[in-house]
Amino acid sequence: MNTAQYKTWDEFTEGIWRQNPVFVMVLGMCPVLAVSVSAVNALSMGLATMFVLVCSCGLVSLLRRMVPKEVRIAVYIVIIATFVTAVDYAIQAISLALYDALGAFIQLIVVNCIILGRAEAHASKNPPLPAMLNAAGMGIGFAVGLFALGAVREILGAGTLFGITLFGASFQPWVIMVLPPGGFFVLGAWLLFFAWLERRKLRRAAPTTEAGQHV
Questions:
Q1: Rg (CA), the chain
Q2: Which of 59, 130, 165, 182 has the smallest C-beta neighbourhood within 10 Å, fewest atoms?
Q3: What secondary structure does DSSP assign to 54-106, as a single string?
């Protein structure tokens, strides 16, 4: 893999793991906690956000040399709002039940700091392809984070996954998991898990660093 390919791959994977918007940067928590009651809702919101993120970052990158710096944020918001409107109508046409479940959080994608942040920090400074790859990675990372919460909450709170029953009739659902406090509990557990992984990684790297210093 040459340097250009490595840089492209690194830009794509950045948001999936190292800079995951949910578990590392802790951004966009409002929809993460609100719509992650079930795996379907969480995955749908994640995919909708990813679509808006990729399309808006691509267009921002194309227009980056034409937009005056003084009005760039307003232009970015108009671009994002255009794609959010398209997603809003698409979800409404595909499934009214899903549209009602996601509620106002579809429209609130417009002010999601992940999208505006990517547009300002990356898309406005890079060509379309790298900008869209970076946005796709961030979108996948956000969708993975939402799905991780939604799957756990649905399994524990209803005993199902994507509506499919996983346990027998004797299973007693943890009702709190489908209530607002459940979102905080599950998010806290995932953040604790990733913090443990990071500490474990640092502990493993420490002996190697010390050995190098002694040599």
A1: 20
A2: 165
A3: HHHHHHHHHTTTTS-GGGHHHHHHHHHHHHHHHHHHHHHHH-HHHHHHHGGGT
pTM: 0.87
* Contact present, 108 and 85 (Cβ < 8 Å): no
Per-residue pLDDT tens over the stretch 115-171? 988 999 889 998 999 899 999 999 999 999 999 999 999 999 999 999 889 888 888
Does residue 10 contact residue 16 with C-beta atoms inside 8 Å? no
> What contacts 66, CB < 8 A, 6 or more positions away?
none
Element (H, E) at 113: helix 113-121
What are the structural domain ranges in the chain?
A: 3-214
Helix (H, G, I), strand (E, B) or coil at 30: helix
